[in-house]
Amino acid sequence: xxxxxxxxxxxxxxxxxxxxxxxxxxxxxxxxxxxxxxxxxxxxxxxxxxxxxxxxxxxxxxxxxxxxxxxxxxxxxxxxxxxxxxxxxxxxxxxxxxxxxxxxxxxxxxxxxxxxxxxxxxxxxxxxxxxxxxxxxxxxxxxxxxxxxxxxxxxxxxxxxxxxxxxxxxxxxxxxxxxxxxxxxxxxxxxxxxxxxxxxxxxxxxxxxxxxxxxxxxxxxxxxxxxxxxxxxxxxxxxxxxxxxxxxxxxxxxxxxxxxxxxxxxxxxxxxxxxxxxxxxxxxxxxxxxxxxxxxxxxxxxxxxxxxxxxxxxxxxxxxxxxxxxxxxxxxxxxxxxxxxxxxxxxxxxxxxxxxxxxxxxxxxxxxxxxxxxxxxxxxxxxxxxxxxxxxxxxxxxxxxxxxxxxxxxxxxxxxxxxxxxxxxxxxxxxxxxxxxxxxxxxxxxxxxxxxxxxxxxxxxxxxxxxxxxxxxxxxxxxxxxxxxxxxxxxxxxxxxxxxxxxxxxxxxxxxxxxxxxxxxxxxxxxxxxxxxxxxxxxxxxxxxx
Length: 546
Hints:
Elements: H1 3-20, E1 32-34, E2 45-46, E3 60-71, E4 78-89, E5 95-101, H2 114-122, E6 126-130, H3 144-159, E7 164-174, H4 177-187, E8 194-197, H5 204-218, H6 223-232, E9 259-264, H7 272-285, E10 291-296, H8 319-331, E11 335-336, E12 341-343, E13 346-348, H9 360-397, H10 409-442, H11 452-484, H12 499-510, H13 518-540
Parallel strand pairs: 5-6, 5-7, 7-8, 8-9, 9-10, 10-12
Antiparallel strand pairs: 1-13, 2-11, 3-4, 4-6
């Protein structure tokens, strides 16, 4: 009669939180594809004047280092940027050149793009690989406009070289840097051409939301874990002065120059169908019809074969030759004769979640409930340590009970708290397994059987419901004991009672309901609040959507 209404009230609160924080998401259309016009990825040109077209390996390559200082205009921070310049030995005249732009992470001039830069330089290009401009930023607050200006400094360096044709300097951008290249082309529209490797066409919120949702599904994560993506990528990052997630790089100016787009059929990180469609649409808006798209079989996000977590993985078959041939054709102003879209059929499993947007109220609640959970957990840990010290002291001095729990509430609190924390660990472990699976998949590894990442979600839901029932039983028991003590009556007429009866009632009410010590009562209340906050955290992430 008491526990059931309490359970219904608690489960009602938690279920309401789960439903209120649910973010709508449309995966449709699914299984999109773009049929290529040829499976042959080679790039050919009409060469009526028989212009000499260099090939990979025509020249020996020499290397040297230079450096420059890049300034982050928003903060004034400076970074010394090293450049590794590769030049073809014996090539005469003014040469074309390429600046390489890093993807995510912290690449340097010496550990990035070595094989591709070597290939292009051996075909007559001067290539420059620089340290990634990062200053004091991290992956979540990169300064893309400032990065674009730093890369443009490398472009200007090449234009100023006596052996470089200043009108034939292009860029090679991969993954994250394709957001930067949009700023670079806005600042410097004289860039001659661009090679885009696995371009992230949409905004970071939509691109990364797509990546996470698709990869969660591919590794076999329970749909419950996939709902976490929706809530996470609805965060209003502007509340934390993080503006990168909603940058607008879908501009016609970003594709107004000759463009080569390369995808890998095993790339699980980019929306290839919608990306191709957007690139072509924006390029045509800029009156640029010189766009070539290639999709290479078995290649991953960085156009390599196999698991990128392993060193020495080779580039996709024919990719170095194709990109070299295309670049040579561009700098010689030749007309392309091969198909514009070729290779494997371009596929995309789900739609880009373009309806995702910042939700400030959801973000504030998310931060509030997680901060509250952390603070109450820390407070309960401190009180538990104090209680442990007090108990040891009482045992040593034979003083009796340190906390004074009555009616078994101490043992019950320990059991239910342990169960709640075990459920939290299971949730963290399950989510961690999903993340590990996604990382392996992103690097080109094969997905493994789902296992824990699927069954852990319903198990957590069941255990969480049982935990709520157990807490309702505890609260019911507290109400029962308080009732027996006469503490639940609003008013009791003492008229007609003898002095002895009044004294007996007073003594009955003075008996402890929960614990005889303040420390015991404080430990119970703080721990209970901590566990309820954990349940609210579960509710926020959708564990009470059945």
